[in-house]
Design brief:
39% of the residues lie in helices and 16% in strands. It contains 12 helices and 8 strands. Strand 2 and strand 3 form a beta hairpin. With 311 residues, it is an alpha/beta fold. The longest helix is centred in the C-terminal third of the chain and has 18 residues, at 235-252. It has a domain at 133-244: Ribonuclease H-like superfamily/Ribonuclease H (Nucleotidyltransferase, domain 5). The chain is globular, with a radius of gyration of 22 Å. Strands 6-5-4-7-8 form a 5-stranded mixed beta sheet, sandwiched between helices. A 3-stranded antiparallel beta sheet has the order 1-2-3, with no helix packed on it.
Amino acid sequence: MEDYPTTLMELEKRFSSDEACLEYLAALRWPEGFVCPTCGSDKGWKMGRGLWLCSGCRRQISVTAGTVMHGSRLSSVLWFRAMWYIASQKNGTSAVGIQRVLGLGCYQTAWTWLHKLRRAMIRPGRDRLKGTVEVDETYVGGAEEGVSGRQTETKAIVAIAVEVLIPKGIGRTRLQRVNGVSAADLSAFVQANVDPGTNVCTDGWGGYNEIRSHGYIHKKTIISSKGDPAHIAMPAVHLIASLLKRWLLGTHQGAVSRKHLDYYLDEFTFRFNRRTCKSRGKLFYRLAQQVVRTDPLPYRAIVAKPEVEPS
């Protein structure tokens, strides 16, 4: 049964202490009962302060150990407020906004929390897209001179897949930064995000020619010969590209580096795929679920993440 606060006042009342927050996280992490992450034993005793004693290996296990909140010295109450604020903002928020709302003294803490929570927005092993799916790429970054077509020197390449609903509409989307637009890059993206047997619609770029051999029904549209502009021939994927760029520019003023673009793509995907959800509390609940299921992401790992270079 889904259990979550429906308003900010309810959140503040229900989760006013670390003990209440940790108890809620324990229920999300172990919905069927305690399971030791070290030895796998399902027997243990609650000790307080978010700690459990495993009867198998006799280790003390923290509810937040091995999660996004691993090693945090700040209150769980603050983490819950951060998750609620992020989930309740329709278009997202910036690190400065989080810092002001939570009263954090350090901008770096707010920035790090945002990136950690963005990474928790994507569920590992999520279902792949199916039905009819449009696939294309877009480029994120400033204007370039002396390049044309799919050439780029400084921009990041983002592959996009989006379900097309019949008779009219858009379903789920997937976005991923890719090395380039070769057949290897684009085929790998399609295989990772689209179910085999799906109708995959692309433009005439040769990088998509191999996807049929991977079990997909490939419908290729040569944009120049069709007569219709790209956004008419493949409206869904071009709408996603437009919304992504508008969101990056509007919410983040375009100040998104290639190094950290993946985190922003995760957030955009989380928000778009749940755009019809009327309850902010449910978005908070989904985010909290993922927080306890996502591996730790230390600050050093975030800032040291290597850029993907064009191939």
